[in-house]
Amino acid sequence: MIPSSFIQDLLARTDVVDIVGRHVTLKKAGINYKGLCPFHGEKSPSFVVSPSRQTYHCFGCGVHGNALGFLMEHAGLGFVEAVKDLAQIQGMQVPEDDARPEDREKAKAQREKQQSITDVLGKATQHWRGQLKHSPRAVNYLKGRGLSGEIAARFALGYAPEGWKGLASVFPKYDDPLLVEAGLVIVPDDTPAGNEAEARRYDRFRDRIMFPIRSVQGEVIGFGGRVLDKGEPKYLNSPETPVFIKGRELYGLYEARTALRNKGYVIVTEGYMDVVALAQWGYANAVATLGTACTADHVHKLFRFTEQVVFSFDGDAAGRRAAGRALEASLPHATDTRRITFLFLPAEHDPDSYIREFGAEAFEACVKQAVPLSRQLILHAAHDCDLETAEGRVKLLAQALPLLAQMPDGALRDQIAEDLAQQARASVDDVRRRLSQWGQDGGGRGARRTGSAGHGGGHDHPDGGPPDLDDANQAAYDSYAAADYGHGDSPGQSGGGWQGGGGRGPRRDGQGAWQGKGRSDWGGGKGRWRRDGGGWDRQARPPQRPLPQAARPLERAAWLLLHRSDLWEQLPPEIHDLLCEQPMPLGAFFSWLDRLITDQGPLAAPALLAQLSGQATEGSDEHAIAPWAGAEGGRDEALSALAQRLTHFHDVVADTLSVDDLVALIRPLQLQALRDELELLLQSGELSEAAEARKFELIRLTNALKLEITRLRPISG
Q: pTM for the whole thing?
């Protein structure tokens, strides 16, 4: 097992669009991407990749997951192999397992601490927003900067009054260590313990306009405070905390999400006021770094929301240096489908002052004239190079090649190499040869491993033999998949999914395609490998009895409805819809059951099982299952496999079961649906009264459902 903290960090650094896009041709579709599903044959794209949710989902075959899940299912990797493969792409080292019980308890305590900190920061935000309304001086300052009350409310701007202990009226326990951990209160380092320590505590933010920094999920994770008059520092930021890392967060990204989708690009500025002022003038698609240089993590996060980034800098020397750092951070993400440009304003202006003096049209003209990355790279590398001399041209090559080598392979890199060759008066072939040598020997990107047809993207065996598999990898994958992906909900899924009653043991055929044969054929055992058509193929062992698998809640619900189909009619319509929308094969089962009961009424378990297995006797309704026959992926086989699995569930006295037992199994699914809707609403950035009312209604329903789940008695299957 790999520490869960490492997996979370790995997924946070990974863009699922980039991982899936290596194997699937994706096209922008609103805020998401669409393409043809790689797991089943289709002519119309139903495979959706969500950058904001970092997941993929196929509405045709029901397959879904995150970046790790895609590598496991598409490349046939075990869980540990997929983690190592993803870590190699991100340049991270997989740590040894240290997930002892005490470590898990420590991780749990850390998560609880993070939640406590965001709660404290949220409470401070509300307090400072209230203080702003009662401070004419602060209000007049914002009005003088051209800001309206609507913009101030959208960004939750506030005011921290003068006074050393203003937050003492907000938090009764002003000596609570959590206030220090959240960055709200300062205790001098030389302060002794005891009452004197409490006396010397003071607020970090005093007499400042407060800019709450929110995560993509909308939680306040830190603050930026700006002085109203003269004073130093001009901007004061929260220190880094368990919820706030400056090199990864961007001010205004939460507020800009809808505008990013509408405008199609993001403007990256250097200050909080730039973001707010641009929003006031109709450019709500602006964000800002948090007092630090732009990092690769910043760029990576931005490309989850848009395909075009415009960096805006002052035209002075400091702005040029900042542009150089942003350029280097952007290069690994500069693919052929993305556009990165650099906007340089006059030295005496920043975006806030420029748009206020010259207006939105002038600023729009500047955006359109921004320097593209291809030109900026050569300009940056040519600094201090006299291109009229051989020495200067050689220096240009020496400074440009390390930058160019950081870019991914593609037409854009080739085009820049041609431009570089022209500027350096060198041949294109010579530049490409030097670039290739630098990639191999210069410590840059290095050689990137790519999966071949014989290995399916897995780790290549050192002697050209089969990919490494072992029982520990398979066990780790099973544990992780059961916890996070729910793959076992789709036994017998065909069209690229696992075959054979939920087994996750594929083998490769001669064409490099994975063919599922159940856990007993692959599963990490000691079976032999053999060559087949240029690829390595596992030679199947004698059939073995499959290991029992625990029933999941929806499978138990399906089992219960098989034995008590009369309960279906007692469920409300919204639950019917929720069940029928589930992925294969359970969604197909509930849809089939709904139609069957509508046509024939409740049936006994033997008759339902016979029809579900495709073994309907003469005179039964043969059309009950017909709508699924021959559909993409063969839903009839999936339903038949589900029927076979359900027959092996432990028997209980069905007559003693009630609709409450059924509802107890479905409530967690409803809870997740409410959470998903709430997340989508938050991501949309919708600010209307109806949206706000729905948000609070979803929160209320979620809390009520949590309480109900704790009271309901689930059945065992």
A: 0.54
